C-alpha cells in the first residue's frame, strides 16, 4: 500500500483472507532444516575456496609467474615454488593468502565427512544413490528438497516444482511460445539433479533406458537440452523410488505401453 501502517496492513491481510488470495506452504521438519544448513555451509566453503584460489592464480601473472594446469594437491607447492625468487613483499602477501584456502579446505573436509556419515546411515539416500551418476550430495539434496514425498500427488510434477519445465508465454492468437526452464524452487536441488544427469550422460557407460533416451535427445538437439530433460525425468524417477521404496532399475525412464491380451477366436 502507498501508506504502510499497522491498520492498513491488517486491512490488507483481512482482504486477502476474505478473497482467498493465499495458499498452503509446506514447512520442512527440523531435521531437514539441519541438513539444508549442512549442505548450504559446505557449498559456501567450497565456493569461497575456489574464489580465493582463483584470486591467487590471477594475481601471479601480473608479476610474470605462470602456474599452468595442475590439480589441487599440487596447488600450494607450485605457488611456493614460484615465490622463491620473487619480491619479498609480494611473497609475504601471497603466503598470507595461502593460509586462507588451507583453513577453508579443512573446514570443507570436516563438513563433507559429516555429510557422508549422514548419507551412510540414511536408507532413503542410499536408495537414491543406486541411480547411475548419483552421489551423496545429490541424494541428500533431493531428499531435503522433497522432505515428504507424499505431498506430491504425481511424480511428474516434481520436475516443475524445482523449475525444470519450460516457461510458456501466450498472449492472444499470435503470440504463443515456450522459453527456457522456469528455474523456480530450490536451486540446490536443481543443480544436484542436473549434475547427476550430466554425469549419467557423459561419464556413465552402463546402459539404461534413461541414458539411451537422453542420448537420443542430444543427437537431435544438443547435450545441454538432453541434460535438462534427463534431470526433469530423473527427478520424477527419484520421487517414485522414494514413494515405492525401490532401488533404481535400468528400465526406469522407458516408455511403458499397456499390452492388450487378445482372446483366441472360438
Describe what this molecule looks like in 3D:
Helix content is 59%, strand content 5%. Strand 1 and strand 2 (175-181) form a beta hairpin. The protein folds into two domains: 30-120; 132-166 and 183-244, no CATH class. It has helices at residues 6-19, 30-59, 75-82, 88-120, 123-128, 136-146, 157-161, 187-202, 209-220, 223-244, and strands at 166-171, 175-181. It is globular, with a radius of gyration of 25 Å. It is built from ten helices and two strands. The model is unreliable at 256-266 (pLDDT under 50). The chain has a two-stranded antiparallel ribbon.
Distance from N terminus to C terminus (CA atoms, Å) equals 78 Å
Low-confidence region ranges: 256-266
Helix content, binned percent: 55-70%
Shape verdict: globular
SSE diagram, text form:
Blueprint: H1 6-19, H2 30-59, H3 75-82, H4 88-120, H5 123-128, H6 136-146, H7 157-161, E1 166-171, E2 175-181, H8 187-202, H9 209-220, H10 223-244
Antiparallel strand pairs: 1-2
Helix pairs in contact: 2-4, 2-6, 6-8, 8-10, 9-10
Characteristic terms for this protein:
2 strands, two-stranded antiparallel ribbon, 266 residues, single chain, 2 domains, disordered C terminus, mainly alpha
Amino acid at each position: 500500500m502507498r501508506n504502510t501502517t499497522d491498520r492498513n496492513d491488517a486491512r490488507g491481510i483481512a482482504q486477502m483472507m476474505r478473497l482467498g488470495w493465499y495458499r498452503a506452504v509446506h514447512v520442512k521438519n527440523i531435521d531437514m532444516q539441519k541438513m539444508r544448513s549442512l549442505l548450504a555451509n559446505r557449498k559456501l566453503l567450497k565456493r569461497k575456496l575456489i574464489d580465493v584460489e582463483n584470486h591467487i592464480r590471477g594475481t601471479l601473472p601480473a608479476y610474470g609467474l605462470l602456474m599452468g594446469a595442475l590439480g589441487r594437491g599440487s596447488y600450494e607447492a607450485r605457488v611456493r615454488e614460484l615465490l622463491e625468487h620473487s619480491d619479498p613483499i609480494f611473497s609475504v602477501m601471497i603466503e598470507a593468502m595461502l593460509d586462507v584456502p588451507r583453513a577453508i579446505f579443512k573446514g570443507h573436509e570436516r563438513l563433507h565427512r559429516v555429510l557422508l556419515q549422514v548419507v551412510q546411515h540414511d536408507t532413503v539416500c542410499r536408495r537414491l544413490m543406486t541411480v547411475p551418476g548419483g552421489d551423496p550430495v545429490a541424494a541428500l539434496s533431493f531428499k531435503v528438497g522433497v522432505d515428504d514425498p507424499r505431498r506430491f500427488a504425481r511424480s511428474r510434477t516434481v520436475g516443475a516444482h524445482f523449475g525444470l519445465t519450460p516457461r510458456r508465454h501466450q498472449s492472444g492468437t499470435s503470440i504463443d511460445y515456450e522459453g527456457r526452464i522456469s528455474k523456480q524452487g530450490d536451486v540446490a536441488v536443481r543443480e544436484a539433479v542436473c549434475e547427476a544427469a550430466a554425469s549419467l550422460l557423459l561419464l556413465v557407460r552402463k546402459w539404461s533406458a534413461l541414458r539411451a533416451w537422453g542420448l537420443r535427445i542430444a543427437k537431435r538437439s544438443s547435450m545441454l537440452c538432453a541434460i535438462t530433460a534427463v534431470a526433469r525425468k530423473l527427478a520424477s524417477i527419484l520421487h517414485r523410488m522414494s514413494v515405492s521404496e525401490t532401488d533404481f532399475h535400468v528400465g526406469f525412464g522407458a516408455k511403458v505401453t499397456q499390452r492388450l491380451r487378445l482372446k483366441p477366436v472360438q
